[in-house]
Amino acid sequence: MPEPLPMPDEALLQTPAQTVGPFFGYALPYSGGPTVRAPWQPDAIRLHGTVFDGGGDPIPDAIVEIWGADAAGRPSTERGVLDRDQHGFSGFGRAAVDRDGLYAFTTIKPGATRAGLAPYLLVTVFARGVLHHLFTRAYFDDEAAANGADPLLSSVDPARRHTLVAVSDAPASYRFDIRLQGEGETVFLDFGLEGRHEGMQR
Amino acid sequence: MPRPAPQPGESQQVIDAEIAAHHRAAHAAAASGAPVPAHPPRDFAPYRSTRLRHPTHELVRADPEEIELVSPAFGHTDVAAEEADLTIQHAGEPLGERIILTGRVLDGDGRPVRNQLVEIWQANASGRYVHKRDQHPAPLDPNFTGVGRMITGDDGSYRLTTIKPGAYPWKNHRNAWRPAHIHFSFFGSAFTQRLITQMYFPGDPLFALDPIYQSISDQRARDRLVATYDHDVSEPEWALGYRWDVVLTGPKSTWMEPEDADHA
User: Fold this and answer.
1) Angstrom distance (rounded) from CA B14 to CA A145
2) So what's the ipTM on this one?
3) How many Å lie between the alpha carbon of B237 and the closest alpha carbon of chain A?
4) Keywords on this record (chain A) (predicted)?
5) B77–A contact, CB cutoff 8 A
């Protein structure tokens, strides 16, 4: 029998999440947040979509973050993520949706981070009414062979797999809608943090 | 300021009963050995806006890849030191109770989360946000915006000066009031540790009534969102001090930690 794990120090237990609420619009968005790569750069792509609720209505108070590798599949270590010049690439973007639930980024298409994986962007969704943010990944529909071999995509119910794939809708442009609930509900991901155990006290 | 007509809505008693039922179910599950998540459930009906905004499918378990085990390279050049003082952003002094709030951001092993971005936003002392969609008929303060940013130090610490925010009404149910809180956004050393949450003040009489705070079923976990008054942080003739430490657990990279690599 393995030794039981020591009880975690109370001081080192996870701080719980709370909703971003409705009033982040004057705080979290920042100039350049949606522009991870300058649109005039030859390798710039557009990633855009709408965030929908379970009634099929667009959500006007969500904020989306993307985080991705560079074209070689490496995380950027360039400093200056918030105050980026027009030539760099930091991999991180943030865009609040508009009144119609639309968000849009310009970024680059990342490289695969290791052999056997398809390229993707990590997408994080915050909104009023979402008590704990949601992670998903945006893969690309023009990477069919890589997507077919990707371990995460392969582990997902085939009927829902398409919700993780951004669709080419124009040259260098991909559409990635996010549905929080219901018909076509996006596959959201648990990186092992959802069921973290701890004792309970009233 | 015109006083709005009271809106019909469900009573606090209805919300209280729903919260109590959620807590009973969570405690029964814990008693039978189920894991107790630290985070609130996304399906928590007493907070009405969750109804159409929580996924109904189980989340799919994913192994974090390298990109998910690192975070954006924020740095001190991203943020001016003055952004940590919300009381000096305008020509005059904001109204309200000046406070100093400090703490450390740590990972689950107790290691400091260094050089990471902390963002905050909050209502003013009257309980009003600058946000254009905030319709609460309380006065705006021309000397207070309520937005701040900091980069954590080498020990994971942050420190900010602000005004204690007021409680404010919202329309979740009839006579619904949010306890005073400050919104916080954190990045860990891995993107999987990303956290947006709210920090509360000790002894707030609205705690028991608030479905957002009460969405967390474990009292100890709720307590972790409440700052403590710290007289050593208070400054004489100037400001009251509060301390609030934050822990971001979860899988993280080992290869991006040069401090540790030195000892390898």
Assistant:
1) 53
2) 0.93
3) 30
4) Dioxygenase, Oxidoreductase
5) yes
Q: Domain of B217? A: 12-52+74-247
Q: How would you classify residue B203: left for phi > 0, otherwise alpha for psi between -120 and 50, otherwise beta?
A: left
B263: CB partners within 8 A, 6+ apart: none
B211 alpha carbon, distance to own chain's centre? 15
B151 part of a folded domain: yes
Contacts of A188 in chain B (CB under 8 A): 55, 57, 59-60
Active site residues of B: 129, 168, 178, 181, 183
Residues A55/A57/A60/A63 CA torsion (nearest 10 deg): 70
Burial class (CB in 10 A: 0-12, 13-18, 19+), A197: middle
Q: Which of B261, B220, B123, B225 is nearest to B180 (CA)?
A: B123
Q: What is the DSSP string of A62-117?
A: EEEEEE---TTS-----S-SSS--SS---SEEEEE--TTSEEEEEEEPPPPSSTTP
Of A37, A118, A24, the residue nearest A64 (C-alpha): A24
Q: CA angle A44-A46-A50, nearest 5°?
A: 165
Q: Does A77 touch chain B (CB under 8 A)?
A: yes
Residue B61, domain member (yes or no): no
For chain A, the average pLDDT equals 90
**pLDDT, tens only, A108-145:** 999 999 999 999 999 999 999 999 999 999 999 999 99
- Least confident window among B76-80, B159-163, B208-212: B76-80
Distance (Å, whole) CA B7 – CA B26:
32
Per-residue b/e over A27-44, b at no fewer than 16 CB within 10 Å? Answer: bbeeebbbbbbeeeeeeb
What is the per-residue pLDDT for B8? Answer: 77
- Within a domain: B65: no
Strand order in B195-200's β-sheet? Answer: B147-151, B117-122, B181-186, B195-200
The pLDDT assigned to B132 comes to 79
Interface test with B, best of A162, A193, A198, A202 (most B CBs within 10 A): A193
Q: Identify whether the C-beta of residue B44 lies closer than 8 Å to the C-beta of residue B19.
A: no
Q: Which CATH architecture has domain A24-199?
A: Sandwich (2.60)
Q: For residue A96, which residues of chain B lie inside 8 Å, CB to CB? A: none
The predicted pLDDT at position B257 comes to 40
Q: Which two tokens stand for residue B224?
A: 């972790």
Domains: count for chain B: 1
Q: Is residue B63 part of a domain?
A: no
The pair of three-digit structure tokens given for residue B124, joined into one six-digit string: 């003013």
* Residue B102 three-state SS: strand
Residue B36: which CATH number? Answer: 2.60.130.10
Cβ of residue B33 closer than 8 Å to a chain A Cβ: no
